[in-house]
Design brief:
The chain has helices at residues 16-27, 76-89, 109-120, 174-186, 198-224, 232-244, 250-285; strands spanning 11-14, 37-45, 50-58, 61-66, 69-74, 94-101, 126-131, 140-150, 156-162, 167-168. It is of the alpha/beta class. The N and C termini lie far apart (76 Å). It comes from Drosophila hydei (Fruit fly).
């Protein structure tokens, strides 16, 4: 028994967008469906042994209970059409597995995994199981890969093995929304879910940056005053951070900053005008024709 495609050192990065897509699919599932099933899309870096799950889409299915037998029919034609449409927009994303919701693996997991093994072709599919029942007050995510087991020349079966490393990638644009959601969860207010203006987020980010700079300055001053023992890893991180910043004088930085602020204000103005125009069009469409 072996895992041909994955090792314990394999790093799997999961974009937060995928979790929100799975939750939305579960909330919007048909009344007769007990779970949501879909396809996982992403990229694989074979050189660095990194797999990144970046996108997903729901696949329609039918569940039917006949006595003790559970029949599960996946709309494979719909899945193929959705993948072709996704390739038009994101040709770099490939099928890397499938997801489902529930407390544990379903009885139809082996058949679904066999289907996605054919779709993944040159790699073994991943299976992401999301527990949407919120047991213990949190949502559990588990990642599996299928391992063929059995005796040579005899009956073979499929064993789902848990991959131990599952990292949720919180870098990038999604971090702004995640920080806002975390803030609302820790400090709930009456205006739950209200999005603040863009400039408020810029001010909060600037304030957090100032606090982090003060922390770095205190560390540097303590090291220079021999109040704290220097750490080589922190020194290398500070060196990499400083060398990554382009060298600009104060006037050039001020011009660049003001230009970016003007562009942002122009984008806010255009979005407000578009929103107003859409609201007017919606109201005019409900007026009776004379």
């Amino acid at each position: 028994m072996s895992i041909s495609n994955y090792r314990l050192q394999t790093k799997v990065r999961l974009q937060p967008l995928v979790l929100f897509q799975i939750i939305a699919a579960y909330e919007r599932r048909p009344k007769t469906a007990k779970m949501a099933v879909g396809t996982l899309l992403g990229r694989r870096d074979r050189c660095n042994d990194i797999i990144e799950i970046t996108n997903s889409y729901t696949v329609q299915h039918k569940e039917q209970q006949i006595g003790e037998m559970e029949q599960f029919k996946l709309d494979t034609q719909y899945a193929s059409e959705m993948f072709e449409l996704n390739q038009i927009t994101y040709p770099q994303e490939k099928i890397i597995g499938w997801y489902s919701t529930g407390k544990s693996l379903s009885r139809s997991a082996a058949a679904l995994h066999a289907y996605y093994a054919r779709e993944c072709r040159d790699m073994q599919p991943l299976h992401l199981l999301v527990d949407t029942t919120l047991r213990g007050g949190h949502m559990t995510t588990r990642l599996y890969c299928g391992v063929t087991m059995g005796v040579p020349g005899g009956t073979r079966g499929l064993l789902f093995t848990l991959l131990p490393l599952l990292k949720i990638n919180t870098d990038g644009d999604e971090s702004v929304a995640l920080r806002l959601m975390q803030k609302q969860a820790l400090h709930p207010t009456k205006q739950l879910g209200r999005m603040l203006p863009e400039l408020v987020h810029v001010m909060e980010a600037t304030r957090e940056l100032e606090q982090k700079l003060d922390l770095v300055m205190r560390y540097i001053n303590d090291v220079l005053a021999r109040k704290r023992r220097p750490d080589n890893s922190i020194g290398r991180a500070l060196h990499d951070a400083l060398t990554s910043v382009p060298l600009l004088d104060a006037d050039s930085f001020r011009v660049m900053f003001n230009a970016n602020v003007r562009n942002m204000l122009m984008s806010i103005t255009l979005s407000s005008m578009i929103k107003t125009q859409m609201e007017l069009s919606e109201k005019l469409s409900y007026l009776p024709d004379h």
